[in-house]
Amino acid sequence: MYQYDQYDHLIVRERIAQYRDQVQRRIAGELTEEEFLPLRLQNGLYMQRHAYMLRIAVPYGLLASKQMRMFAHIARKYDRGYGHFTTRQNIQFNWIELEQTPDILADLASVEMHAIQTSGNCIRNVTADEFAGVAADEIIDPRPYAEVLRQWSTFHPEFIALPRKFKVAINGAVEDRAAIAVHDIGLTVVKNDAGEIGFKVMVGGGMGRTPILGSVIREFLPREHLLTYTEAIMRVYNQYGRRDNKYKARIKILLKAIGVEEFARQVEEEWADLKGNAETLTLEEMERIIAYFQPHAYATLPAIDPLAGHADNKAFANWLKRNVKPHKVPGYAAVVLSLKKTGVPPGDATAEQMDFMADLADRYSFGELRVTHEQNIVLADVEQRQLFQLWQEAKAHGLATPNIGLLTDMICCPGGDFCSLANAKSIPIAAAIAERFDHIDFLHDIGDLELNMSGCINACGHHHVGHIGILGVDKDGSEWYQVSIGGAQGNQSAIGKIIGPSFSAQQMPEVIDRLLQVYLRERTPEERFVDTAQRLGIAPFKEFVYATPIETAGRLVGEDEYA
Amino acid sequence: MPDQTNRIIKGREIVADDWTVLRLAEGEDAATIAVPDGKVIVPLATWQAQKETLSTRPAIGVWLASSDRPEELKGELDKFAVVAVDFPKFTDGRGYSIAYNLRMRLGYTGELRAIGDVLRDQLFQMKRCGFDAYATRPDRSIEDALKGLTVFSETYQASVDDQRPLFRRHARVATAAEHKDVGAGI
Q1: One Pfam family from the UniProt entry (chain B) (predicted)?
Q2: Mean pLDDT of A69-83
């Protein structure tokens, strides 16, 4: 993984000094809260419902074990013993004191980490495929390019006060695992006929209250032009993006207003002045960065069947089936540690679990971990022959729930329990659904199903692209939930369709049950839920869900546990 | 009004400044407003409407609102002793791109001044985008604001102040011992 050189260290160190001074000036009253707000947001510090929340950058989700241990340390020393991994592949802590944030940054800097631009109206942490570097379908490792973009966007003087937040994702494989279509800029690595590496550039995707899939504005951008072309996009957006209404300030609205062709024309015009300038990447610089992402020193191993010798162990078989992914090197596999155990808010991990995951990484996976945008943790380089041992250990720490890609592997924002933006709680709904469907055989029979839930229209839980999407809404001061189906991320990205009037929290498990009943009745043998939903449309689902009243009495399971 | 003495940051120093920024009040018309004598920085619209008379004056400046397009001044920039860019809110970042374009696309080399909601914590990025003068908000210490110019000693990306990104300014060396197989995997 990337290692800081003297310049990276210097910039992060000077950042801490700057931020420490800003905090002191805020406390001394020299900065008003209004003035401090964008400064702290650019450092990932939010004021939430109960306390400050600090979001720490995990560039493209890649972590060293010592960095994971630092999270455990922060959880213990500055928070309440746990942290929350997010859909931006970052981690956030919910109970932070303002006065302590500079010290946290100093602790982070000791392991080459920071909280720069994890929030605010600037270019956010660049995300990438969690299986980068090990996926068999990879054309090229996207991480060096994500790192190039990370450095370029860090404190970019011109793009620090954009109309709105700005998210970039990059994919290097045939299958898109970075959800590029729902990002402000989505980049896919492609090779042209001459074998040269470049990017297909997609702009204007996003969720929130106006969900839109990105539009391709350039089929092939030679990779050396990555920064100048991105700069051209940013400059057009910075000047002409709307600033009168924060809900219409994302780049997708600009694209919609002027049209994709006109937007692309303006970018090309801007780029004509930049193309080939000193920001053009040199081969030397790319080689320097790529050198940090070389394959590990893999042993020469035969590919084996990890189940051999454990054929009667159904629990292990389930885990292998769901949580273990193929690796391009024979004898290796990628393991997903599930942070979706029933009874735990999705994406949460305790300090003890973080330390333990770091240990696992050291012992089984070259000391590296990855955070997924589905809020799980990946050990990307595990020897197949060690899978059984790893599984037993992970299981003992509550990290081996065999549910990756299943109904209970929900993406879920922190919702109304923590977030001051939320209209509704999400964690208790997730808990209630997880409890209702806590039957592993049933879940495996349902198969791949992405259930994404957001506590408000901002869509941190990516509900628009969930096979089943749940959106918390406020109606006359009470919490309701709107359900959509047929959404998808990846190569067949789609925005889900709302099935009808919203439901109460208590009704939600039954609603999911009814949706599944329709699926089980209508599916063809090879169909996933989303395929059936897209083939049939919402009508049969809607009809069945609303046909008879849903019981609303009774306490919602998990309702009070996470407040 | 023309004699009003204010202080601004010019380069890296606090200096006295005798320019006046003309702002139109509600109902005032850019074309008919009387531009006072002396050193005045007029709105772009006033310059465009009164160009003939204003260009005969010994010292005139123009300011751009964040919604103005700097290309409108193409071919005229040598007529101004000062070009200013207004920041209506410190969170409105359009002025940075305007400054970039004035310097890099239109080749303006004279004084480029940030006016409006200009605060200490914005000065470093303003300088990088090509500003060299800052009329900081009068309710805040200008001496403190000066500290905002020297926050970072290195930056990653190119901008107006240095058109070479870090990777062209310094030889950056991969430090990890295990990463020797340079170039493989491209």
Answers
A1: DUF934
A2: 97
